[in-house]
Amino acid sequence: MSTRERADAARNRAKVLQAAEALFADRGAENVTMDDIAKAAGVGRGTLYRRYPDRAAIAVALLDEHERKLQEQLLRGDPPLGPGAPPAERLAAFYAAMLDLLAAHGHLVLGSEIGHQRFGTGAYGFWRVHTHALLTEAGLPDPDGLVDTMLAPLAPELFRYQRERGVGLDRLKRNLRELALRTLTADAADHA
C-alpha cells in the first residue's frame, strides 16, 4: 500500500508543478493563488499544502533544476563562467548567465524571491558566495560590504522593470559586463 501512496504523491507533485508553471507563465506568480494552483492541478488544498506551504515553495521547486545547472557550470564549467578566468571575466559571464536565466524563467524567480525572502533562498546564498569569492580574488578591500550591491542588478523585479521599459537583453548584458570589468579590474588595481 505504501508504494501506491508514493506513486500517487509523485503524480500529484507532477500535476501541481505543471499547473503552477503554466499559471505562473500565463499570469505572473504574484497573480496566482494557492487555490488557483490546486484547482488547475485537480488536487485538494490539503494535498497541495502538505507538500508546499506557499506559492514561493512551488516556484523554488520549479526553479531548482535550472539553478542547479548554472551552479554546476560555475563550479566545474569552462571559463569564463567556470574556474580559470580572471575574476572580472567570471563575474561578467555570471551576469550574462543570470540574465539568461531571468529571461527564460523570470516568472519563476519572481514567484520564489519575493521581497526580503530573496535573501533566504539557497540559490541567493550560492550566488552570494560565488560573487564574494570573485571580489576577494580580485583584491577588493571590502568584499563583505560590496557583494550584495554587485548582486542587486540581478533582482528579478528590476529585471522585469527594465524589460518592460524596452531595455534589451543584449544591452543589459553589455552594461553588467562593463560594471564587472570596471569594478573588479579598476578598483582592484587602485587598491593593490
Kindly describe this structure.
The protein has helices spanning 2-27, 34-41, 45-51, 55-76, 87-112, 122-137, 143-151, 156-164, 169-190. It is an all-alpha fold. Helix 2 (34-41) crosses helix 3, helix 5 crosses helix 8 and helix 5 (87-112) crosses helix 9.
Task: Itemize the secondary structure elements and their pairings.
Layout: H1 2-27, H2 34-41, H3 45-51, H4 55-76, H5 87-112, H6 122-137, H7 143-151, H8 156-164, H9 169-190
Helix pairs in contact: 1-2, 1-4, 2-3, 4-5, 4-6, 5-6, 5-8, 5-9, 6-7
pLDDT < 50 stretches:
none
Distance between the termini: 66 Å
Give the DSSP E fraction (strand runs of 2 or more residues): under 5%
Q: What is the overall number of helices?
A: 9
Helix proportion of residues, in percent? over 70%
- Helices and strands, in N-to-C order? HHHHHHHHH
Largest sheet: none
Q: Tell me, rounded to a whole number, the average pLDDT.
A: 87
Q: Tally the beta strands.
A: 0
What structural category do the secondary elements indicate? mainly alpha
Shape by Cα distribution: elongated
Radius of gyration: 19 Å
